[in-house]
Amino acid sequence: MSSRSVSLRRLISALAFSTAAFLSAAAMAETIEVTDLAGRVVKVTKDPQKIVLSEGRQLYTLAMLDRDDPFKRVVGWGNDLIQNDPGAWQKYLAKFPKAKDVADMGNPYAADVSMEKIASLGTEVYVLDLSNYFKAQETGLLGKLEKAGIATIFVDFRQDPTQNVLPSVQLLGRVLGREKEATAFTDYYLQQTRRIYARVGAIPDKKKPMVFVERAAGLLPCCATFGPANFGRFIEEAGGRNWGSQFFTGFQAEAAQEKVLTDNPDVYFLTGSNWYGSNPGSSAVSLGYDATPEKVQKELSALMQRAGFPQLKAVQGKKVMAFYHQFYDAPFYFVAELAMAKELYPDLFKDVDPEAIFKEFHEKFLPISYSGIFWAKLQ
After folding, report:
1. Do residue 245 and residue 368 come from a single domain?
2. DSSP string covering 204-259, please?
């Protein structure tokens, strides 16, 4: 073979390699337009390799989409999951030890966000909670991120989860190139939530029990509660009447303890989590992946012994339940609704086992195994 033929073959091979590399890089850098939960049309690199989660609890969703390794593209995150859900953090850390190397962006609810730190991590996409939209606008953060070439998308798992969980999961699925996983979750979510609606949707309001829900009982002074959103909406979708919806319009509110005791609700719900790390003085019900039945029951009983509570008909009739507080910021909140519906209408839901469903959810969608306690009834 002549040297000219060899050279020509080498040139063709080199061109083919260069073309393949170019096409591969172009595919990796594919830009798509998405509409986020703030209604913004955003251009974003599909399947980014470096993202920052403004809130650590956004991991609950990322773990469903990047189940093989939820941390593989996370270069920074807020410290709220580590601080407020240590049981979950330890489960993930045990399976993914490199999670400890993710940059700590600090308290996601602090006034200032370090634009410099976000940029220094090579961030391609910054995921923000919808509740921070106006603050991000007012501080100029959105403009700075845009100038730096960092796409920002807003999701919502807290302000209005019953409306926004599905579009938030679908949005992240598109951005991360995980549409298949997002669709699988959507199908499961609709199956479970429609099951509730089909059974309680026709019950007249006058026949629905009045339910008071105390937010972070034992951590916050009594009686923090919810208006017609979040846990307040969970109660309503489960077939109850949320006490707070009568008086408040916001996401969360402060109710006078005397008023709650006087109104004497039919059912008393409360939320709790393991806050001992961030709040050593907490007397909340420490629900979560590391909870034990004995400890949970002891904490729940103590809260129901506060002045005036033993006289409540809900306490006397054992119509008291504690729920994992983190349901309020998670795509799998519907499991709490199932447990509520079964408590409110045991005959209608006698064939439904919420714990078995939550275990199945872990097996189908999450990389960690089920453990602990996520709701408990006063014994």
Report:
1. yes
2. -GGGSPEEEEETTBTTBPTTEEE-SSTHHHHHHHTT-EEGGGGT--SSEEE--HHH
